[in-house]
TrEMBL record:
Region spans: Disordered: 411-441
Catalytic activity: DNA(n) + a 2'-deoxyribonucleoside 5'-triphosphate = DNA(n+1) + diphosphate
Family statement: Belongs to the DNA polymerase type-Y family.
Organism: Nocardioides koreensis
Job description of the protein: Poorly processive, error-prone DNA polymerase involved in untargeted mutagenesis. Copies undamaged DNA at stalled replication forks, which arise in vivo from mismatched or misaligned primer ends. These misaligned primers can be extended by PolIV. Exhibits no 3'-5' exonuclease (proofreading) activity. May be involved in translesional synthesis, in conjunction with the beta clamp from PolIII.
Cofactor note: Binds 2 magnesium ions per subunit.
Principal location: cytoplasm
Enzyme class (EC, first level): transferase
Species lineage: Bacteria, Bacillati, Actinomycetota, Actinomycetes, Propionibacteriales
Protein name: DNA polymerase IV
Length: 441
């Protein structure tokens, strides 16, 4: 551990739902649930208003509707979340060159490199308070919970103590006093299965865990896992804040405003994406062993399947063949709104090259034309739309050939609601301009 509380963890509160409430004035202060809206959907994020009814992440949408039927159930807008995240991460990187993003909505910041005059409690507390105010202003009102501690573990625990919109600093030397009464599930890596195994051994709190010897934990959980928990139960964590992580995968995906139902078309799109992934791998002298496809269904349910090859490859034909094979196991009859191909398990060599094997014929990408007809367009609740006469708005609901839209934006007051035929030529999805592609690994 460090001598000062110089590790900061920032976590944006109920991020997806908060972005929706920001951009939809009529939903502010009301329960909002973001995720799959179909019968098999899963909650991605629930606003704090919805959480009071027991709705939480990873809950089935069906159960969430039964608990909070009056909530707004939205399918999500990843472009809005991505753009907001970039604003926040830019603020953090302006504060310190050592920023380690964990996801779109949370990151660690190393304050030892922030240029502060010192790292005393008063100084870092004032810095964190100012940073939270900057985030609120730059994001149009989003709040963040912040924790400060002598390690990444303690900072992460601290940021969860006063949600939402909280700030907690754990002074050096008080870490064990904070941790001991807490349930063992507060420790990273203690999921339901590990917690149950510890419970059967009579270990419920961090204090209980601290009393267990290293040998006993290794016997219970294995060398790596048991050893890790042994140290964390004693607040021993020397992991650095790592700003740049080695690339773990290369992937390409596409989102379609008209649901795809033609299996041959999907296979063609996967083949084309496999070619793009293979090209990026070759350009950077990389290859990979694990091929993964990502499929987002019409109801926003996201599925992924992967297969690991016996040796790394950078060939379009191999990646495409595996991707198409993975698709055959999925039920896509209801329509697909997103397809993606990725390769992980990266290496800088290729098995076939070592043995001097002949290169197999590269796959020739098939010509694919994504349908633009509105006959099967899904007007997902929450999606951005624009009307030739009414301007920007979002889908409130749809069905039986009718689309209901509320016309409002983040900059407007709560707007009027109007209904249109789903094939109204004046109504169309609003798609933001795509940013330049991030540089490959």
């Amino acid at each position: 551990m460090r001598a000062h509380a110089s590790v900061l963890h920032l976590d944006l509160d109920a991020f997806f739902a908060a972005v929706e409430q920001r951009d939809k004035p009529s939903l502010r202060g009301k329960p909002v649930v973001v995720g799959g809206v179909g019968g098999r959907g899963v909650v991605a994020t629930a606003s704090y208003e919805a959480r009071t009814y027991g709705v939480h992440s990873a809950m089935s949408t069906r159960e969430a509707r039964s608990r909070c039927p009056h909530a707004a159930f939205l399918s999500g807008r990843f472009h809005a979340y991505r753009d907001t995240s970039k604003v926040v991460m830019a603020l953090l990187r302006a504060a310190s060159p050592l920023v380690e993003p964990l996801s779109l909505d949370e990151a660690f910041v190393d304050l030892e490199h922030s240029g502060l005059p010192d790292l005393e409690i008063e100084t870092v507390t004032a810095f964190a308070a100012d940073l939270r105010a900057q985030v609120r202003e730059a994001t149009g009102g989003l709040t963040a919970s912040v924790g400060l501690g002598t390690s990444k573990f303690i900072a992460k625990v601290a940021s969860d103590l006063d949600k939402p919109d909280g700030l907690t600093v754990v002074p050096p030397g008080t870490e064990l006093t904070l941790l001991r009464p807490m349930r063992v599930s507060v420790i990273p890596g203690v999921g339901p299965a590990t917690a149950e195994r510890l419970r059967r051994a009579g270990i419920h709190t961090v204090e209980d865990l601290e009393a267990v010897s290293l040998d006993e934990l290794v016997r219970l959980l294995g060398k790596a896992h048991g050893g890790g928990l042994y140290h964390l139960a004693r607040a021993e964590d020397d992991r650095p804040v790592v700003p740049e992580r080695e690339a773990k995968s290369v992937s390409v995906e596409g989102t379609y405003d008209t649901d795809l139902t033609d299996r041959r078309l999907m296979e063609g799109l996967l083949t084309r994406q496999a070619g793009e992934v293979a090209g990026r791998l070759r350009k950077h002298g990389l290859s990979g062993r694990t091929v993964t496809i990502k499929v987002r269904l019409h109801d926003f349910t996201t599925l992924s399947r992967s297969s690991t090859l016996p040796s790394p490859t950078d060939r379009t034909s191999t990646i495409a063949r595996v991707a198409r094979g993975l698709l055959t196991d999925l039920d896509t009859s209801g329509g697909v709104r997103l397809l993606g191909v990725g390769v992980s398990g990266l290496a800088d060599w290729i098995q076939e090259d070592l043995f001097g094997e002949d290169q197999e014929d590269e796959e020739v990408p098939v010509e694919v034309e994504v349908p633009t007809s509105r006959q099967r367009r899904t007007w997902a609740p929450g999606m951005d739309v624009v009307h030739a006469g009414m301007g920007r708005g979002w889908v409130w609901g749809s069905g039986r050939g009718v689309v209901t839209v509320r016309f409002e934006t983040a900059e407007s007051p709560a707007g009027p609601v109007r209904s249109f035929a789903e094939d109204d030529p004046e109504l169309s999805p609003w798609v933001p301009q795509e940013p330049a592609e991030d540089p490959p690994p």
